[in-house]
Amino acid sequence: MRARGVGSGGPVRRGCRTNIGAGRSTLRVLACLQPGGRPWSFKVSETPLEAPPTVYVVTPTYRRPTQAPDLLRVSQSLMLSTNVFWVVVEDATRRSELVGAPF
Fold it and tell me: Which UniProt keywords apply (predicted)?
Protein backbone atom coordinates (compact mmCIF):
# COMPACT_ATOMS: atom_id res chain seq x y z
CA MET A 1 0.00 0.00 0.00
CA ARG A 2 1.47 3.35 -1.02
CA ALA A 3 0.47 6.89 -0.21
CA ARG A 4 1.90 10.29 -0.90
CA GLY A 5 4.17 11.70 1.79
CA VAL A 6 3.49 14.81 3.82
CA GLY A 7 3.73 17.87 1.64
CA SER A 8 5.06 17.24 -1.84
CA GLY A 9 7.29 14.31 -0.94
CA GLY A 10 7.66 11.02 -2.69
CA PRO A 11 5.86 7.78 -1.98
CA VAL A 12 5.91 6.41 1.53
CA ARG A 13 4.78 3.03 2.70
CA ARG A 14 2.04 2.76 5.28
CA GLY A 15 1.66 -0.09 7.68
CA CYS A 16 5.31 -1.05 8.12
CA ARG A 17 4.93 -2.85 11.41
CA THR A 18 6.83 -5.43 13.33
CA ASN A 19 5.57 -7.33 16.35
CA ILE A 20 7.23 -6.76 19.69
CA GLY A 21 6.52 -9.17 22.51
CA ALA A 22 3.33 -11.18 22.73
CA GLY A 23 -0.23 -10.09 22.09
CA ARG A 24 -1.27 -7.17 19.94
CA SER A 25 1.70 -4.93 20.70
CA THR A 26 3.10 -3.48 17.52
CA LEU A 27 5.90 -1.07 16.83
CA ARG A 28 5.66 1.22 13.83
CA VAL A 29 8.92 1.21 11.92
CA LEU A 30 9.94 4.72 10.88
CA ALA A 31 12.25 3.76 8.04
CA CYS A 32 10.93 1.23 5.53
CA LEU A 33 13.00 -0.05 2.66
CA GLN A 34 11.85 -0.45 -0.92
CA PRO A 35 12.60 -3.65 -2.76
CA GLY A 36 16.29 -3.53 -3.54
CA GLY A 37 17.24 -1.95 -0.20
CA ARG A 38 16.59 1.70 -1.13
CA PRO A 39 14.83 3.78 1.53
CA TRP A 40 11.41 5.25 0.85
CA SER A 41 11.73 9.01 0.45
CA PHE A 42 9.52 11.64 2.01
CA LYS A 43 9.59 15.34 2.86
CA VAL A 44 8.45 16.95 6.08
CA SER A 45 5.99 19.80 5.72
CA GLU A 46 7.43 23.15 6.75
CA THR A 47 4.07 24.61 7.74
CA PRO A 48 3.62 25.03 11.50
CA LEU A 49 1.41 22.51 13.25
CA GLU A 50 -1.87 23.54 14.82
CA ALA A 51 -2.09 23.73 18.60
CA PRO A 52 -3.45 20.49 20.04
CA PRO A 53 -7.03 20.60 21.32
CA THR A 54 -7.72 21.15 25.01
CA VAL A 55 -8.25 17.92 26.92
CA TYR A 56 -10.66 18.09 29.87
CA VAL A 57 -9.89 15.56 32.61
CA VAL A 58 -12.51 15.03 35.34
CA THR A 59 -11.23 13.15 38.39
CA PRO A 60 -13.76 12.03 41.00
CA THR A 61 -12.31 11.49 44.47
CA TYR A 62 -13.36 10.84 48.06
CA ARG A 63 -11.69 11.21 51.45
CA ARG A 64 -9.26 8.39 52.22
CA PRO A 65 -5.74 8.02 53.61
CA THR A 66 -4.15 7.75 50.15
CA GLN A 67 -6.03 10.69 48.63
CA ALA A 68 -3.10 13.13 48.70
CA PRO A 69 -0.56 10.76 47.10
CA ASP A 70 -3.09 9.67 44.49
CA LEU A 71 -3.93 13.23 43.47
CA LEU A 72 -0.26 14.20 43.48
CA ARG A 73 0.55 11.29 41.18
CA VAL A 74 -2.21 12.27 38.75
CA SER A 75 -1.20 15.94 38.83
CA GLN A 76 2.43 15.12 38.07
CA SER A 77 1.35 12.99 35.11
CA LEU A 78 -0.95 15.70 33.76
CA MET A 79 1.78 18.33 34.03
CA LEU A 80 3.68 16.48 31.30
CA SER A 81 0.92 17.27 28.80
CA THR A 82 -0.06 20.55 27.21
CA ASN A 83 -3.54 22.04 26.99
CA VAL A 84 -5.01 20.03 29.87
CA PHE A 85 -7.86 21.38 32.02
CA TRP A 86 -8.16 19.30 35.21
CA VAL A 87 -11.37 19.22 37.25
CA VAL A 88 -11.28 17.44 40.63
CA VAL A 89 -14.70 16.51 42.00
CA GLU A 90 -14.90 15.41 45.63
CA ASP A 91 -17.77 13.19 46.76
CA ALA A 92 -18.55 14.92 50.07
CA THR A 93 -20.93 17.46 51.56
CA ARG A 94 -17.99 19.59 52.73
CA ARG A 95 -14.83 20.32 50.84
CA SER A 96 -11.63 19.05 52.38
CA GLU A 97 -8.56 21.21 52.89
CA LEU A 98 -6.64 19.03 50.47
CA VAL A 99 -9.02 19.35 47.52
CA GLY A 100 -10.86 22.56 48.33
CA ALA A 101 -10.07 25.78 46.53
CA PRO A 102 -10.41 29.19 48.21
CA PHE A 103 -13.64 30.36 46.54
Answer: Glycoprotein, Membrane, Signal-anchor, Transferase, Transmembrane, Transmembrane helix
